[in-house]
Design goal:
The protein is mainly α. Helices cover 76% and strands 2% of the residues. It has one domain. The chain is built from ten helices and two strands. Helix 2 runs parallel beside helix 8. It is globular.
Length: 198
């Protein structure tokens, strides 16, 4: 449980870092930025609200939420708002580029930590797996379709699309893949693996 909570908190903070870099963010953050421009809600609040809306799409897909699903809704948005409050927007391209790089790396690490805890998928991941199961399409195809649709909607609403969006798409998967074996839950020991402990 502590691993799940830490991973989700770090995930929210990592999103805040990429937002503060102002060089482009991941598709769901683009959507949240666009909605933030047109509603009275904060970025973090919208992260939770959009997650809750996505969760309703699980119903026809017969997906069942787990503890990790609800923890995702409860923690990520608040952590993102806290990160935005704590971290000022840097001045100058080098500082912004560095903040973007740290944000993407931390995001990949956070994904490995909370996924490795194995408490269930977040709302967006559950939508992806549910649609893949129903349509028979590959996870890659379904995820690409979802994220392109979300990205387009967020961009039309005024969200920030840029080099950071591309770098996120390219880099976050390999970073998460690198860290995941080190943070995978070991059911035989009831804790993280020995590699994670080391």
């Amino acid at each position: 449980m502590p691993q799940l909570l830490a991973g989700l908190a770090l995930y929210g903070v990592s999103i805040a870092l990429t937002v503060r870099a102002a060089l482009g963010v991941n598709p769901w953050a683009v959507l949240n930025q666009g909605l933030e421009l047109r509603t009275p809600f904060s970025f973090g609040t919208l992260t939770a609200l959009v997650g809750a809306a996505v969760l309703t799409l699980w119903i026809p897909l017969r997906q069942r939420p787990a503890l990790g699903t609800f923890a995702n809704l409860a923690l990520v948005g608040g952590a993102a708002d806290a990160g935005l409050w704590l971290v000022p927007e840097p001045s100058g391209l080098p500082a912004r580029a560095a903040l973007l790089a740290v944000g993407i790396a931390l995001n990949g690490f956070a994904v490995a930590v909370y996924v490795g805890a194995r408490f269930g998928p977040g709302p967006r991941d559950g939508l992806m797996t549910g649609l893949a199961a129903v349509t028979g399409r590959s996870l890659r195809t379904v995820r690409t379709g979802i994220e392109l649709a979300v990205l387009a909607g967020g961009w039309l609403l005024g969200g920030t699309v840029g080099v950071g969006t591309v770098l996120y798409a390219v880099a976050v998967g390999p970073v998460a893949q690198y860290f995941l074996p080190r943070w995978a839950y070991d059911p035989s020991g009831g804790a993280t693996s020995a590699r994670a402990a080391g």
